[in-house]
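Components:
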Amino acid sequence: EVQLVESGGAVVRPGGYLRLSCATSGFNFDDYGMSWVRQTPGKGLEWVSGITGNGGTWNGVTIAYAESVKGRFTISRDNAKNSLYLQMNSLRAEDTALYYCARGSSVCCDYWGQGTLVTVSS
Amino acid sequence: DVVMTQSPLSLPVTLGQPASISCRSSQSLVYSDGNTYLNWFQQRPGQSPRRLIYKVSSRDSGVPDRFSGSGSGTDFTLKISRVEAEDVGVYYCMQGTHWPPTFGPGTKVDIK
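Structure:
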């Protein structure tokens, strides 16, 4: 059974940082691209970042970010640990959201975690 | 970035009746490999999103066959042949052809 479990969400002050983690199981992690998608309370979905799998590229790149987080967030993966990460720096109030880990990057996203809540507030 | 629009944004439906949601992209979603990476997601209240349809018309495993997707280029449609109570929620289209992927604003489906 495919499972994605996010962790690391917290309340943080503006300008602060957090590192989200996504532990996966039930599939060959190396073979899949992965994405982070966020949802502001009561609002829609926003794709935040994605990373390809197995050394593949999409539109010539292996990593991409939404414009709203570019330069502040960094996605990474540890295939040995079957885990995905999102390092979030210089956090802003508008980054407050439920952050989902999802399987797939270009062909997004057939499995989703339950999400981890990030609140940026002073 | 590619802008995705959906209509309607709110769709009250009668149980057992059909429903249709339109999705348009600001540019063609045909990728260089010839595929069109347009997905549809359902989000029931209090749940994580669930993918229903990928590459325009391919239904994900376990998705009832009353859900179907169609379209090409920049215009796409999700149809529910006969709405059931469990179909209540918000439906999003999403393109994965151009990075970054972008979602539509969502269409809220509820029962009249």
